[in-house]
Amino acid sequence: MNAGYDHKSTVDEIRQRFDADVERFSNLETGQAAALDSPLHIELLTSAARAVTPNAQHILDLGCGAGNYTLKLLQKFGGAAPTQVTLIDLSQPMLDRATQRIRAASPDSQIEAVQSDVRAFDFGHEHFDIVMAAQCLHHLRGEDEWDAVFSSVFRSLRPGGSFWIADSLEYGRPPVRAMMWDRWGEYLKNYKDAAYRDQVFGYVEKEDTPRPLFWQLAKLKAVGFADPEVLHVNSRFASFGAVRPG
Question: Helix-strand-coil percent breakdown of the chain, rounded to 5?
Answer without folding.
Answer: 45, 20, 35
